[in-house]
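Homework help thread (please don't just give me the answer)

Our assignment gives two proteins as sequence + structure token strings and asks us to describe the second one. The first is just a warm-up. Here they are:
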Amino acid sequence: MARGMIFSTGNCRRNCGLRIADCGLTTPNSQRSTPNSQCGITLVELLVVMAIIGMVVAISAPSLARFTTRLRLNAATRQVTSLLSLARSVAISSHEEHAVILDAARRELRVVGVTSGTALDPVVRLPASVTVQMMMGGQPASETQFVFRPTGSLTGRSVSLVLADRERQSTVTVSGTTGTVSVQ
């Protein structure tokens, strides 16, 4: 850098015409001097940056809320799918019928052995934003449970659990003949 050349740094205010030595910075050809009071940022510049950050946050907040709602629905769908698969696997391995019980008042699903009456530990508790409705044969079900046989199939027709939030829904279906669990 040539001696006496005008230099603008991030530490000096807006191309104020200060030489690099005027801001207390050194180059190989300059001596360190005392910091000048004109170096730094102004309150107005700081407020402008904070206002821009505030606008970006205000614009992105609604999409962030929708994103978290969607995540809750996806997580609830995965948990229900896992619980149903577990119920089917336990029914096959224990050679005992296992019922999946939907408790709408407590917003949870649990698995209970039909003959032994023992409940499995995993219980799916649904978030407040997610609703669930049981469908059998395409119609709303009056029953609140369905049973996996020791063969893995259901004792009745196919069952669908419709999980929904305000904007989207996800359907977990259990085939009556094979007991396979799928998500739509």
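The one we have to describe:
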Amino acid sequence: MVVRRPGLLGSRFAKGTQHNPIEPTLEEATARMPVRGVRGATTVTRNQKDEILDVTTELLKTMLDVNGINTEDIASCWITTTPDVFAEFPAVAARHMGWTQVPLMQSHEMSVPGMLPLCIRVLLHWNTEKTQSDIRHVYLREAARLRPDLSSSTFSTAR
């Protein structure tokens, strides 16, 4: 079933009359803002609350800084950790940064043999006009080795 708002497909005004500024024009109603994914990852040296919050804050700030992201343009954020990171929810770092209106989701990664341990991964869904090739993904600390294929367009620091 399709629900149509009055004025979007056929204005209630006679042809040639001025548009009602309260109702969007057809062009305004169908304008689209692309949502892009911005990936990031980092690692902790141990499963400890303060370190989880500190490195998550560093990762989120770096992702925003290198891409020029304003918090109000973030549609949502998904954060995962490897099963060995459980002393604190990494999303707490985002809330401490003032992300009170950003929907956050957290989960654990699948436990796969050979996986990078003590890892925190982030996927930001960002409302932006930038193209996929303009996005800079961020891999910090030991997580820098997760995506060497993106090295030309990725901000990474191995420590």
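TA reply:
I won't write it for you, but here's a hint about the kind of observation we're looking for: The chain has a mean pLDDT of 85.
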